[in-house]
Write a structure and sequence with these properties.
Largest sheet: 2 strands, antiparallel
Radius of gyration: 19 Å
Distance between the termini: 43 Å
Length: about 190
């Protein structure tokens, strides 16, 4: 049985997001069918606009909450299937160059992007290592990641955002204008 925690994010009784990922995959599979029908009447550019409007909005909705889940593997497979449909590629053909040529973020890239934007919007919600001690260490400016005793915390959105932010370049976060920050971050992911 499931507990709804907002619409349409679904949390199950084991405090996992498996039901949410099932729900997103189900919706994306329906979009795959619609794209097969649309492919006959629309060109690639129009199909990409529909992709951004429908498919990407489905898997990016509230991704910070449930995106640290292993279920993203299932969603990226459907994302690749959608791109194969849009560009009329064969079943086993690689879509890596499609991601690069058309500046499309993978589901993983989208999760990291949203995590970085969240940190940039709300930096006062995070504790840095230099707030806790005055030692001159190489990680003193990193976001503090608490010690964890369970994998639930390790995979939680809070811990995941902390770890993602620590992996990104410090120079990106020094940009003051938020729109400029977003465009630089997108360029960083595409390179």
């Amino acid at each position: 049985s499931t507990v709804k925690s907002g619409n349409p994010c679904i949390l199950d009784n084991q405090i996992s997001w498996k039901t949410q990922v099932d729900h997103v995959c189900s919706r994306l599979n329906k979009v795959c069918f619609a794209f097969r029908c649309l492919r006959k009447v629309l060109d690639h550019k129009s199909m990409l606009n529909v992709y951004y409007g429908i498919a990407q909005s489905i898997f990016s909705y509230n991704i910070l909450t449930w995106g640290s889940n292993a279920g993203l593997n299932r969603i990226i497979l459907i994302q690749k299937r959608l791109l194969r449909i849009i560009f009329n590629l064969k079943f086993r053909q690689s879509v890596r160059n499609i991601f690069v040529q058309h500046d499309i973020l993978t589901v993983y890239g989208l999760f990291v992007y949203k995590s970085a934007c969240y940190y940039r919007k709300f930096p006062n919600l995070f504790i840095h290592n230099d707030d806790l001690h005055n030692y001159n260490t190489r990680n003193k400016h990193d976001v503090h990641v608490r010690n964890y005793k369970s994998t639930k915390y390790f995979n939680s959105p809070v811990c995941m955002v902390n770890r993602v932010v620590n992996k990104l370049l410090v120079d990106i976060f020094s940009i003051l204008n938020f729109q400029r920050f977003q465009s630089v971050l997108i360029k960083y992911f595409r390179n």
